[in-house]
Amino acid sequence: MRILTGNDLATGDVTWWTGTGWSRHIEEAVDVGDKGEEIAQAENAARRVNVPYVIDAEQDANGVRPAHIKDRIRALGPTVRLDLSLKPADPAIGNWVI
Amino acid sequence: MLEFYSLRENGETNEQPAVTLEAFAGQSNATAVRIEPGEDARELLPHLGQIALVEVNFPAFGDGRGYSAAAILREAGYKGELRAVGDVLVDQIAYMVRVGFDSFAPDQPLDPAVVEASLARYADVYQKTIDARLPIWAKRHEVASA
Amino acid sequence: MTMYAYDKYDQQMVDARVAEFRDQTKRRLAGQLTEDQFKPLRLMNGLYLQLHAYMLRVAIPYGTLSGKQMRMLGHIARKYDRDYGHFTTRQNIQYNWIKLEDAPDILADLASVEMHAIQTSGNCIRNISSDQYAGVAADEVIDPRPWAEILRQWSSFHPEFSYLPRKFKIAVIASQEDRAAMRLHDIGIELVERDGVIGGKVFVGGGMGRTPMIAPEIRDFIAAEELISYMEACLRVYNRHGRRDNKYKARIKILVHEMGADEYRRQVEEEFAHMKTLGIDPPIAELERIAAHFAPPAYETGLSDEIDRSDPDFALWVDSQVTAHKQPGYAIVNISLKPVEGIPGDASSAQIELMADLAEHYSLDELRVTHAQNIVLPYVKKADLYTLWQKLDEAGLGSANLDLIGDIIACPGLDYCSLANARSIPVAQKIARRFSDAGRQRELGELKLKISGCINACGHHHAGHIGILGVDRKGVENYQLLFGGSGAEDVSLAKIVGPGFDEDGVVDAIEKATDVYLANRSEGERFVDTYRRIGMDPFKEAIYA
Question: Which residue in chain C has the smallest CA separation from A51?
């Protein structure tokens, strides 16, 4: 699948396109098919996102998983400070990145 | 919004079309010339007396070669119109003025309120440039402008 | 403290800069500036858009700051970030979780203590770095920081050189021992004395990154009165001729290399002759005014040089972290930000605030940041060392590993940085863990290990006795190992050992290399000395056996 990601302009938060808006949680990311660029441009122009781009991902048992490790780190947080990640309570979450 | 901005007295500006540096070399009567980044402003130094307008092109605002071209011309005593053209953004105007530009023909119009605020932003400057502002070190030690 | 204090002009400049950036941010948020237009403006205020959020890099000029300034850095970590900061290889500090909408307020807070984030990024002249022992080292000819401050002011808000082909980094030192990697800077200046006059020996064209180079000497001696004219000449030649077609060939090192040092020197001298006619050099009175801020403090005299070593842990810490001071009775203290389970260069807001307090009580209110991502307290009385150590140790700041294998320089890597290809911090932690035994570290001796998560080399891996470069190999993190680099006066560029490794593989390879070193070393040889003597082959054989 292809998903759309970017950063919130004002806060810098990593965000994912849900189909209707932007969420900090990758589980809510939807497949944009080949519409990604079009959506990105519109959302960027409206300043609802900053520097959006399309990435490859797959839907597995755990949810949406970006193809590249960089985006998995963006989705979760730094692997060396899991206390600051989006899932600090999950002790095994670091494995999801790798 | 301003399509053109001039700091020259009475906003005066020169309308004649600028020839390329290469063409200028071959023409004895041209009074307006345009420099591209990567071209050498020094080639104009023997002819400054006959030039009324130098345009310095900024195809991309991040290409800062035009700032040195302007400084070189002013340091050599050029008194004519020195115009920044192209991808000239309002947040670059203040530095451009400091290196000698006195008119601006940007691809995108400038907000005059922002231009005004930018030019008034810094009461003082650290460096001595051709803009004749007394640098901070001169004020600290009461060195008169040379 | 002995450091520069702003006068009303300096303060006005940073205050105006805050107002300017506040306006630019407002216009960005309102859509009057696109991201492409805003990016160079925010970069010139140290604000990156990074992997998790905006990242702000605050300038710590030539690595010197007061207790009050350090306390403000802790305040920023608490109020605007997530309770920690990261000290960098250019003596600055970075915060990783910044909001754009907060940035103007952060800059205002910084300005209230004479700090800023001006030109800590962007294609402009960056922080002027220097020797972390400036002013207190026995081997310096003079304190280099007044020259660094003159350069800081000259380079700030420079109208001609704010859109250079690429970033520009300057370092100033004043000793033969190079504690600031001066030869690996775009411009490096070594202050020397000739016939009673202090001047600068100027090196141009050093750097790391994709094509590391050692800066050649371009000028033998430049007098203080002509420093600015000469710097203008160096920069103008670069601004005009530096490559703009390829981001990876845009640094001045490429220009000097492609043009040749002789031709670059010739063009600079020609430009310099012209610059000298313009009256742009400040009078010597300005350097003297600045230097007065750096006059040695009123040291106490008659102090004891004895250190009670009866506590063995304290003795180990003294042996590693305490460096000789030029003034009797005093010592230079190095605070390690490299505890075994920590993140190299990171400090919590509580630790930052503690170091501020300790500086005020024990170090004449002054601290330094080193390019090895550690902190220095430059004015500690020997009589205070024990109490100081106890407080540091209690706070997790008592590691005794200066310049040992545990004192790793590591960039933030793929955990934080959008430019990275691989994570660097986990590798650093694995190495630190493998070599955590204090006795083993001391046995290995001086071993400067540096890790970069990408070719941009912010971890200075080319200058490591052991260097590690993280790469992306078909989507998987991979690590290249290098040996034999040095950023000190014995400057050299590290060489790749062979095919790369995964994270655990590179740690094993390093252990094998240290075994080879121990088996082959002569008396007094460091790892890098043995490598230079016996060459790569014995190491390669052991590693790839």
Answer: C35
